[in-house]
Amino acid sequence: MKYCFLIFILAAVPVFAVQELPEDQMFPDTNAGVHDDTGMEPFVNETEVFVEMSEDALSATETEPVADSKLMPPQNVTAFDVPHDDGEAIMVVWEPPPEKTPTRYLLEISGPDGLWHEVTETVMTQYRVSQLTNRVLYRFRVSAIYPEGVARSEPTDPVAPLDHWLKLGEVPVLIAIMIFVFFLLWFIQAARRGVELFVRRISGLTAVEDAIGRATEMGKPVLYVPGLSGIEDVGTLAALNILGEVARRTVHYDVKIICPNRDPIVYTIAREIVKETYASEGRPDAYDPDSVFYLVPDQFAFAAGVDGIMVREKPATIFLLGYFWAESLIMAETGASTGAVQIAGTDSVAQLPFFITACDYTLIGEELYAASAYLSREPMLLGTLKAQDYGKLSFLLAMVILTLLAVLFGIDTVGWVEVR
Amino acid sequence: MATDFWTWTAAILTLAILSFLYDDNAFYRTAEHLFIGVANGYSIVLSWYNVVIPHMIDPLVGAFRTTREQGFTTAFFTFDELNVLNPYNDNNFFIIIPMMVGSLYITRFIPKISWMIRIPIGITMGYYTAIAIPASFKASIVRQLEASILTRADFSSWSVLIYGLFIFVTTVATLVYFFFSAEHKGFLRPVSNIGILAVMVGFGASFGLTVMARISLAIGRFVFIFKDWLGIVH
C-alpha cells in the first residue's frame, strides 16, 4: 500500500511542479500590429503547426481587422496551459471592455511562423484552443468587434501547451479501473481456492457446441471471421479469445476451420492461437497452415472475398465475432442465404441490429466479452467474468447512490465523476 | 452514354459485383478477385511509401550517412530542446530497436526459430490492451455514469424529468439483463425484460437510420450507372 502511495506521489509531482521553458525559447518582446512579422523563429521545431490546429484554425486566414484607437479593447487577456492534459491545449481568457459591450470577439494566434491567424469569433470571454503542438510557444490576442470598428488587445505572453504525467481530470477512470482490478484479483483468488462460480446460461454461447456438431455431421467447414478491426479493439481481443475455444472444438470434432483476416497483426495472432490449440489438444498434425490466412486490408474487398468463400465453401457454421462496420450485413445476409447456422457477436452498437436480423444467434456487447470464459469454464477466466459482473453491479450502485445524493441533498455528484 | 474508358470500367465492375444478387458467377468472381488483388497491391505500395520508407529506411540511412560524414555522436539518439526523447528525428539509430522487434514476425518462415514471433505478438497485445482498457472504461463506463445520474436540474420540467427517468431506468434494467451471475428469476425477470426491450428499441432506431444511409449509397451507385454511364437520367 505504501508503495502505491509513493508511486502516486511521484506521478503527481510533475503535475504540481511549475513547468518553465528555457530562456532561449521565449519570444522576443514585440509590439503587436497587423501582420506584425516580428521575425520570430520556430522555437522548438519547424512543424507546420497550423495544419494541426482545430477546425476553426484550419479555416483561418491571416487577418487584418481595422483597428480603431477610440474603442476599448478586451481587458486582461491571458493565456495559460490547460492543466493536467496531454499537452495540446491552451486556455485564453479575457474581460469585456469596461464601457461598451462589443458584438463579438476575434481571437487570433501567432505561432512559430510569426504571423497572426484567426482562431475563432465568439461572444464568450474565454476559449480553449486545442490541437496545438506540444511544447511549441504561442501568443494570442483578442479583438473586440464593434459596429464602428475593432479594438485589439496587446498580445499575451508566449505560452506553450505542456503535457503532464497525471491527468487529474481522468481520476474517475483510474478509480473505476482500480475497483475492477480489485474484483478481478478477488475472484481469481476465489477460483484458485476452488469456490464454485455460477454463471447463468447464455443461449448464443450454448449454441456454439451444437453449431460445430452440425458442421461435423454435414462434413462441412466452420468459417470464423474475427472482425475487421485491429488488435487495439476490445472486440477483436474477445474474438481472438473465442477463436481458441472454437478451434478446440473443431479439433475434437475433426472439422476444418477457415479463418480469413483483414488485419495483418490480428492474422498473425489468430494463426498462432489456432496452431497452439491444435498442438495443446495433441493434434499438431491436423493443423492446416492455410486454414488461417490474410485476405485483404480493404473493407469491402474483404467483404467480397468472405462472401465468395461462403458461397463456394458452403460452411455449415459461420462465426462473425469481433468489431464490424458497414460490411456486417453484406456478410451476414450472404451467410444466411447459404443456409449456414450463423453466430454473430460484436460490441459495435450500429452493427448489432443487422446481426440480430440476419443471424441465428447474436452475442450482444457484454456477452461477447463473457464468451471465452463461458465456453472454457476455466476457473481463472470465470473469475474475470465474475469481476466483470461485479464491476457492473458497482456501476449500478454508484449510479443510484450518486443520483440520491444529487436529488436529495443537491450535491454536484456529476462533477465527481466528470472526465475532463 | 459515357465515352470515358474508366467510366466504362467502373460501370462494368459495378454490374459484375451486383450480379452476385442472382448467384455466384464468373463475372462476380472476376470482379471479386480483381478487387482483392488491387486492394492488396495498393496497400503494399501505400505501406512501403508511407510507413517503411519515411519511418524506417530514411531515418536509418540518414543516421548512417551522417555518421560516415561526421563521425558517430550521441546526437543520433536525439533529444529535443526540452530533453525529451524524440524518436522521429530525421537521423535516428533508435529506429533499429522497433525494426528488430518487428522483423521477428518474419521468423514464422523459419521453423526452428518460429517461436520468436511470440515476442512482437506479446508486445503488440500488451501495448494495445493497455491502450484499450482505459479508453473503454472512460468511454463506456465513466461517461455513461456521468450521463445517467439524475440531478435536481432534471426536475425542472416534465419533459426533462421523463427523459432523465427513462435514461436512468433503462440503464439500470439493461445492466441487470447483462448480469451473468444470477438467473433471471423473480424480481430480476421483469427488470431484465425491460432491459432487453430497451436494447431492442435502440437497435430498431439504429437499424432504420443505418438502412437509410445504405439506401442513399445504393442510389448513388444507380445514379452513376444511369446518369454518368448511360446518360439516361439528367
Unreliable stretches of chain A, pLDDT < 50, 5 or more residues?
1-63
Shape of chain A: elongated
Radius of gyration of chain B, in angstroms, nearest whole number: 29 Å
- The overall pLDDT of chain B, averaged over residues, is 88
Rough outline of chain B = extended
How many domains would you count in the coordinates of chain A? 2
H-E string of chain B: HHHHHH
Strand line-up of the largest beta sheet of chain A: 10-9-8-11-12-13
Q: How confident overall, as mean pLDDT of chain A? A: 83
Number of helices of chain A: 12
Q: How many helices of chain B does DSSP assign? A: 6
Distance between the termini of chain B: 11 Å
Category by helix and strand content of chain B: mainly alpha
Keywords:
heterodimer, A: 420 residues, alpha/beta, Immunoglobulin-like, Rossmann fold, 2 domains, 6-stranded parallel sheet, 4-stranded antiparallel sheet, 12 helices, 13 strands, 16% strand, B: 234 residues, mainly alpha, 6 helices, extended
Description:
The complex is a heterodimer of chains A (420) and B (234). Chain A is of the alpha/beta class. Chain A folds into two domains: 2-152, Immunoglobulins (Immunoglobulin-like), CATH 2.60.40.10; 197-377, 3-Layer(aba) Sandwich (Rossmann fold). Chain A is built from twelve helices and 13 strands. In chain A, the strands form three sheets. Chain A has a six-stranded parallel sheet, with helices on both faces. A four-stranded antiparallel sheet of chain A has the order 4-3-6-7. In chain A, strands 1-2-5 form a three-stranded antiparallel sheet, with no helix packed on it. In chain A, a hairpin with a 4-residue loop joins β6 and β7. Chain B has 234 residues and is an all-alpha fold. Chain B has a domain at 149-234. Chain B has six helices and no strands. In chain B, α1 crosses α2 (26-70), α1 (5-18) packs antiparallel against α6 (188-229) and α5 crosses α6 (188-229). The relative contact order of chain B is 0.06. Classes of the chains: A alpha/beta (420), B mainly alpha (234). Chains A and B meet through α3, α6, α7, α9 and α10 of A and α2, α4, α5 and α6 of B.
